[in-house]
Amino acid sequence: MRWLVGWSSTAAGAVGIGSAGAVGGDGEIVHPIGSQLLWGDPDPLWAVGDWRPDEVRVVKADAQNRIAVLGTCGASDEELRLGLFTARGGALRHLTTWPGSYTAVVQVGRRVTVCGDLAGARPVFHTPWAGGTAYATAALPLADLIEANLDFGHLAALLAAPDVPAALYESTPYEGVRRVPPGHALILRAGSREIAGYEPVASLAVAAPSADPGHAVDAVRDALVDAVRARLSAPRHVPGADIDPGPVPGMGPAERRAARGMPVPGIGADLSGGPASGTLALLAAGLPGRPGTVLGHGTGAGERLVAVTFNDLAVGGQEAELERAGTLAANPRLHHVVVTGGEEVLPYADLDGPLTDEPGPSLITAARHRARLAAGSADHFTGHGARQVLDAHPARLADLLMDRKRRHLVRPVAALAKADGSVLVPARVYSAARRLARTPYRTGVEALAERLLRRRFDDPGGAVGASLAALTWARPGPAARWLTGESLAEVSVLLQGAVNRSGVGPGQRPGDHRARAALTRYAADVRVLEQAAEIRFQRLHAPFLDNQVVRACRDLPEALRVQPGARADILRTVLEGTGITDLPPGWGAPSHASSAAARTGLRVAADSLVSLFDTPLLAEAGLVEARVVRKALRGAAAGEPLPLDGLADLVSLELWLRRLLSRRGTCWTGTPARARAVPSGITPRRGALASGG
User: Fold this and answer.
1) Residues 116-147: pLDDT tens digits?
2) What is the structure's pLDDT at 208?
3) What is the bridge-based pairing of β-strands 45-48 and 65-73?
4) Which residues contact 568 (CB under 8 A, 6 or more apart)?
5) 461-507 pLDDT, tens per residue?
6) Which residues, listed in sequence order, are joined to residue 62 by a DSSP beta bridge?
7) Closest C-alpha among 645, 541, 532, 594 to residue 310
């Protein structure tokens, strides 16, 4: 893991830095482990972890005005300096418009500004500490700093309503540690804090101006090209070049590297056969800048990009995708690597792994991804986020009605009717979309609170059922049905409190609001995946989650994105704009491999999962009853039509809790041994359910 951490004190000298670190309000000396100091008193900032030299840049105008950028940023030092001067006047948005994925921190006198991203893949957290405010790009270090306990309300909301910002608000799994919402910045002035948004919010009263589809797709192409070029122009790194102990009898360089779990040098990309990964692989291979292996290392001449395809031998039905991936890999600028995996890399098969900053569903598939990424490159492109930024959430149909664009509903509704085979589908979908368009935000959240309180959980069947269920402001999560009544009541109270807060609202139309919430949840899970499946010396790149790409995708007209096959068509146009036209037949066809793998993995690992919930920590916390979850796991393994993603949420949260409570270390040195998160473990809140039954 890599993060930055710092704090702002109420007055100069309240928190000072000595040779050992920082002195807090109680006189203790603290210092983040494995850190490098970027700047010191009175508002210090550290970079923690295995940052590459080019990933940490500090540009100073003078002793009181400076900017730090951590991550992959396509701006030059001169552009950073100009951005610093502009930020002195209070402007923030321009700090988030450079290509790449990064976190920008600006210090102007005693004012410190930390900018989060739009998707939520690079979040910012904060907490009161030592009379001021501590901040970081990871929640666990702050939880260690204040010895935070678990926030059971947040954990309940994470299971009951994971896609509802009103339920999660700005909370984290740790009490007292708060999250800066996506699209916002944390502004600290001598210890006091303020959360400010840097993105303009569209009006609900006036229809958005009609954007030209051609220009909008061109903007997506330009943003993607800039995002890929920012990675290609960064310095190349040879994994483990400074720690290779030398030759091993009977092993070549590649075999030694594989034995140590190190990636190959250079640039690589996933190549699943889908449009997102294929687009990035072809862009990276086609742009100037030698995207392949480093000169002098490996067998290439510095030109070929390593394209990795995963072939799941335990789950069939991927022949068409593998064939498309092979066709794409015939490009002479690509070096195709096929990684095979059997039952040992199915979801739920290998549940051992590192502790991540937060819980996420991807914990159950981390070993599967790690097996693929181990064959990848030091800098590896992934197509994560393409579906969330390009596809249309079903609730966007209500947005079209609000903008009086009914004719654009014809094709998506016809596609649903064809899939369902019923002539009643158009009327049902139109009625649900019209109802949502006329429903206020407060009413929608209150309806969800009532559903949770009354334990009303429907099971949408098929594409039509899922679309109808999504045509709401908010709906229960797939794991909500297995929570205790007390937990659901607690989340219901949280929702009621959210709608009663003055000034709290989505600020967007229902479809736009639901799409942003879905992107935030997915980006958070990608962050968890990056930590759980981390390969030493490797960097994963997800350009579709970059700020400028997200902005360009948000400007796509609703009428364009709701059409069937819109994502594949948009990415095909993007590639055509860069001169890539020879795409294989079936480009953009949907894949169902992940759901099939999840069901197979659950069936194979059923016994171990049931044992995991013999005495679960979730039951000790009063969130579930163990016997209920065990029954659900056995039923799903036997083929009952239960929501598998809900079970994944339960299993991943239980795994995360166990890893958190079993850790012995802390993120800080120089502190007493007690200074770590959740020092006293889980305290049962409800005696009747503590045993888990």
Assistant:
1) 999 999 999 999 998 899 999 999 999 999 99
2) 60
3) unpaired
4) 275, 587, 588, 589
5) 778 888 899 999 999 999 999 999 999 999 999 999 888 775 556 66
6) 65
7) 594
What per-residue confidence (pLDDT) applies to 643? Answer: 93
Condensed to tens digits (0 to 9), the pLDDT of residues 64-108 reads 899 999 999 999 999 999 999 999 888 899 999 999 999 999 999
What letter represents residue 441's amino acid?
A: Y
Of the two residues 610 and 299, the one the predictor is more confident about is 610
Side chain identity at residue 467, one-letter code: S
What's the sign of the alpha-carbon dihedral 574, 577, 580, 581? positive
Q: Could you say which DSSP state residue 483 is in?
A: B
CB 348 within 8 A of CB 611: no
Any residues with CB less than 8 A from the CB of 685 and at least 6 apart, and which?
152, 621, 622
Q: Of 122, 102, 237, 235, which Cα lies nearest the Cα of 538? A: 237
CA distances from 537 to 1, 2, 171, 443 (A): 11, 12, 32, 49
Give ∠ CA 354-359-365 in degrees, rounded to 5: 65
Angle 605-611-613 from CA coordinates, rounded to 5°: 110
DSSP 317: -
pLDDT in tens, 393-433: 999 999 999 988 888 888 888 888 887 777 788 899 999 99
**Residue 253: closest CA among 611, 245, 634:** 245
Residue with the two structure tokens 């064959």:
375
**Predicted local distance difference test score (pLDDT) of residue 692:** 39
Q: What value, to the nearest 5°, has the Cα angle with vertex 36 and ends 32 and 38?
A: 110
pLDDT at position 534 is: 92
Tell me if residue 4 falls in helix, strand or coil.
Answer: strand
Residues for the chain: how many in total?
Answer: 693
Give the tokens for residue 173: 């799994």
d(CA 120, CA 517): 10
Residue 299: pLDDT above 90? no
For residue 125, what are the β-bridge partners?
A: 136, 179
Q: What are residue 127's DSSP bridge partners?
A: 134
E-strand stretches of 170-263: 178-179, 184-189, 192-197
DSSP string, 127-180: EEETTEEEEESSHHHHHHHHTPPB-HHHHHHHHH-TT-HHHHTT--SBTT-EEP
CA dihedral 215, 406, 550, 222 (to 10 degrees): -10
E strand or H helix that includes residue 553: helix 547-554
